[in-house]
Amino acid sequence: MLPLPIKVPLQIPGLGEEEKYDPEAHEFVFMVDINRCIGCGSCCVADKREYQVPDGQYRTWVERYLITVDGEVFVDSPKGALEGYPEPRKVEKPVRDAFFVPKLCNMCEEPACVQVCPVGATFKTDDGFVLIDYKRCIGCAYCVQACPYGVRYIHKKKRTADKCTWCYHRVRRGLLPACVNACPTGARKFGDLRDPDSEVSKILRSSEPLFVLKPDMGTFPRLKYLHLRQEVI
Questions:
Q1: What is the CATH number that goes with domain 23-226?
Q2: Where are the domains of the chain?
Q3: Which Pfam families does the record match to this protein (predicted)?
Q4: pTM for the whole thing?
Q5: I need a labelling partner for 218 at 20 to 30 A (CA). Which of 9, 39, 85, 112 fits?
Q6: Span 152-167, mean pLDDT?
Q7: Per-residue CA distances from 149 to 17, 39, 106, 164, 232 (Å)
């Protein structure tokens, strides 16, 4: 696995450990700038170390897109980009565009996974995080099937549903998610929209267009993408 470029935990501006965390006082958003992602896999390494994710399963991963001159799309993600992309993918046709797209939980405003859970193990917090109560989860996989973004899986060892949580345990302590902390190019951005000085607030107020995955699903993701290509949407 690739070494992490950043080892010092970075704090969320305006939110520190000394603050008594109030879920209703925050509105967090995750943004990914496609133009900045280099497919290094540092985010995946950080996530695996933070959660001891079993081999072959991923809470976050990075996909590589190759677009040929005639519009054909090739997508791959060897080992979820855990080891980056050291080898170029060979295609028979000339390539006109290539880019990387990180994937993780979309933290939907209207999460389909919450609706289908028969035991209430998947729930939404007051600050908008979609989480799993592992003690209540029965591993039925209804939520896995319901998620339109393919970010859920049944943990090989725990036999319960699992997914990215945007590092909720870190956020409540005023720290950035592990993957954001590890990103060497600033492709992953996380912040509080209630803070007008946060980077995400400034981006939202700018003319920079933001996109979400599968907008027709009506889930209203809080994961936003900058410079997302039409081939991905």
A1: 3.30.70.20
A2: 23-226
A3: Fer4_11
A4: 0.91
A5: 39
A6: 98
A7: 32, 20, 8, 12, 12
